[in-house]
């Protein structure tokens, strides 16, 4: 009975960027059977799109929130988040913005954590954290989750996240900075790459015995990590990343 089928379904029209997250082979408007009352958030997530990827939900010209329950026959437009995503400003879908941009990085994009720290961002990362621990940390510390795991981003405790698309760590860094509108200047050489703590300046004279001859000869400004005591100086990896960011159109850091 075609008439009956239509009256019990809704149509979901996903924007281009979200369609690529549908299960393989699915493209175009999705006809969804409304067998039970379900929020648009649950419906879209059941299609494979985490709520963290959604920027707007509309029926005709009405903007709606995640709790909206579609009525049979309705067509719902769901669009992705457009860069730059300003996480510190409230929106209809995310009325509680986070105060400052900081991240928690999942193990599947683990090397991104060190690159974010190199660039000066607070990026929590710990090998062995479970999905629920990451979600809890994101919730408690108001952190943005960076991952390639869609199931993690579907967790309701997570308000802000990004399903990282790029494959290589350097590209993942550029993707993250661009997506969240972090255009620089960046605070290179300010955070421990190992433990994420803010570095503290230290006099060269105080650490002379710990420096290699070449480091002693060519560098004069040093910092240490208050947690692991590792010594840092502005080495070639900083310069290389800065050149890469500059080439990608970001502002000078110094
Ligand atoms: Zn450290």
Structure description:
There is one protein chain. This protein is α/β, with parallel strands linked by helices. The protein has 3 domains: 2-80, Beta-grasp domain (Ubiquitin-like (UB roll), Roll); 103-179; 200-247, no CATH class. The chain has 10 helices and 12 strands. β11 and β12 form a beta hairpin. α4 (111-118) packs across α7. It binds zinc ion.
Helix content: 25-40%
Low-pLDDT ranges: 1-5
The value of Rg in angstroms is 22 Å
Please provide the count of β strands.
12
CATH superfamily membership of the largest domain: Beta-grasp domain
Give the gist of this structure.
The chain has 254 residues and is α/β, with parallel strands linked by helices.
Topology summary:
Layout: H1 2-7, E1 9-14, H2 16-19, E2 30-33, H3 40-46, E3 54-59, E4 62-64, E5 75-80, E6 103-105, H4 111-118, E7 123-124, H5 131-141, E8 144-147, H6 150-153, E9 161-163, H7 169-179, E10 200-202, H8 204-207, H9 213-218, E11 222-224, E12 231-232, H10 236-247
Parallel strand pairs: 1-5, 6-7, 6-8, 8-9
Antiparallel strand pairs: 1-2, 3-4, 3-5, 10-11, 11-12
Bound molecules: zinc ion.
Zinc ion is lined by residues 192, 194-195, 197, 225, 227-228, 230.
List keywords for this structure.
Ubiquitin-like (UB roll), 10 helices, four-stranded parallel beta sheet, 3 domains, 254 residues, alpha/beta, binds zinc ion, elongated
